[in-house]
Protein: Protein LATERAL ORGAN BOUNDARIES
Amino acid sequence: MASSSSYNCPCAACKFLRRKCMPGCIFAPYFPPEEPQKFANVHKIFGASNVTKLLNELLPHQREDAVNSLAYEAEARVRDPVYGCVGAISFLQRQVQGLQNLMRPMLI
Amino acid sequence: MASSSSYNCPCAACKFLRRKCMPGCIFAPYFPPEEPQKFANVHKIFGASNVTKLLNELLPHQREDAVNSLAYEAEARVRDPVYGCVGAISFLQRQVQGLQNLMRPMLI
Structure:
C-alpha cells in the first residue's frame, strides 16, 4: 500500500502549514518532507503567500533556482538577522578589492 | 503651522499601508516619505508584518543596517525574481576564484 503520492506524505510546506498537500501543490517539488528547515526558514523570512506569488509569476523551469536562492537568503537572515546574505556580499567585495590590490604591483 | 511631526507627514511605510503614522512608528526612522520605492520593495518581498517582527527582535542601533540590507535584498529580488542578490554572490565568488587562479602562477 506504500505510495509516494503527496496524499500520504505531505511536502514540508503543507506539513508546516498544517494543510492537505494536494496534487499540483506549488511547493511540493521544492520542499521535500525530509528538509523541514528549508521551508521553516523561507516561511519565517518571506512568508508563504509572498513565496507562492513569486513562484506563480515564474516559469516552471525557473522555480527550483528561485526556491534555492530564497532558501539561501532565508537561512542567511535567520543566522544573521541584521545583515543576512548582504554580509556575504560585503565580505566578497572586500576580498575582490584585496586581491586586486595585491595583484596591482605584480602587473606593473 | 509647519511641523516635521509624523502627524503631518507619514513615513513611506504608513503612507503605503494607508495607516496613521503614530509617534514611535517602528518604520518611520528608516522609511522616509521621499523614498517610497524602498518600502514598496521591502513590502512586496518580505511583507510588512515579517519586517516588523524582525525589527522588534533587534536592538534599536541595529535596525538601520537591517532595514538597509533588507531593502538591498528586496530591490535585487524585484530586479531578478529568480536569483535575487544570490546572483551577486555567485558573480563575486567566480570573480574571487578567477583572481586567485590568475595570481597562482605569480606566487610560484
User: Anything to note?
Assistant: Residues 4-82 of chain A form one domain. The interface with chain B takes residues 44-47, 49-50, 54, 57-58, 62, 65-66, 69-70, 72-73, 77, 81-89, 92-93, 95-96, 99-100, 102-103, 106 of chain A (CB under 8 Å). Residues 1-6 of chain A have pLDDT under 50 and may be disordered. The longest helix of chain A spans residues 86-107.
